[in-house]
Amino acid sequence: MKKGKKWMALTGALAISVIALTGGSGAKAVQADASDEEVFEATQELRDELKEYAGNDYEHFAELYRDTSEETIRNDFDVTEEMLNKIGNYDRQIFQVLAEADGYYAVGNTFYIVAGTHPNTHMECGSYIWLVSEKDGEWKFDYSDGANEKLSDKIVDLYPAGYAQAANEGKNTAFFGTANYMYVDETKVYEGCSNSELKYMYQNDDGSVVLGIWLANGTNNNIYYSTGTLTVTDETLGTVIDLSDLNVDTSVKAMNSRVVELTIPASEVMTGTQGWGRLDSNFGVDYK
Fold first, then answer.
1. E-assigned strands of the chain?
2. Is 92 left (phi over 0), alpha (psi -120 to 50) or beta?
3. Where is 51: in which H helix or E strand?
């Protein structure tokens, strides 16, 4: 992503909008009053109430929000029912407290289903980020400016240092699956299958590109990932990277995940240093 474009923030239960990557402010971390389990329970209860009121009772739906613009609430009211129906087809979920400050919490929530038995499986998933806050024992969704300001510096810590630096310097960057941060916790996997994907990429001054490959081994056996194939395309520029012999060469123990960073020389980047727009990626890897 070229300089001048901001990337990743939170403005509604179903929306990812924008905060700039500027690094930490130097502020000290605030001790959270609630445990992760309490945050998860509160978020799930709020989500259950969303399901009850979405699309049919705006008054009670709006009462689930604190200090949030009516525009955001109206947008959520119109689209939440469809989203909740979609995730109703998944049978497992993962919660993560991604950031916390002064009673504000950014909660990652990934829903998924695995069909079949490893190695012949099919996995589907959907990820969302909820902002919640607690005041006087009452939990509500909170997409206020205050919540974004309190959490923004914490959110930055979810990104690898090299990626954050490249973004701040206006270099090409791309992050795939912007609402899914399972990769920051090596214990988060899709149980029952192996999943591998390109999670992020950024370009260096010399034109080389760093790839962040996420390998999530949700099986009961250790897995060795050997050689991968990767195609990345830009909606305007066309093919950015097309590799058939990516040397992944990484073992991941059962029920764990790893991020492997690989550097692609400039000669393998088909678009040179032209600015990236919207990118799609297709990654596959052999394993045993």
1. 9-12, 15-17, 92-101, 104-117, 120-135, 138-141, 173-175, 194-203, 209-217, 223-234, 238-252, 256-264, 279-287
2. beta
3. helix 36-53
| β-bridge partners, 2 | none
How far are the Cα atoms of 147, 153, 159, 186, 271 from residue 24, in angstroms, in the given order?
A: 16, 5, 12, 23, 33
pLDDT tens figures, 91-118: 999 999 999 999 999 999 999 999 999 9
How many CA atoms within 13 Å lie on the side-chain side of 212? 22
Report the mean per-residue pLDDT for the chain: 89
pTM of the model: 0.87
How far apart are alpha carbons 36 and 33 in whole angstroms? 10
C-alpha 149/C-alpha 21 separation (Å) is 12
* CATH no., domain 161-287: 2.60.40
Q: How many CB atoms lie within 10 A of CB 169?
A: 11
* Residues 6 or more apart whose Cβ sits within 8 Å of residue 44: 95
Domain boundaries, the chain: 36-158, 161-287
Tokens 């079949």, located at residue:
116
Instruction: Enter the CATH code of domain 36-158.
Output: 3.10.450.50
**Per-residue pLDDT tens over the stretch 7-53:** 333 445 443 332 333 333 333 333 446 899 999 999 999 999 999 99
Angle (CA) 76-38-219 rounded to 5° is 85
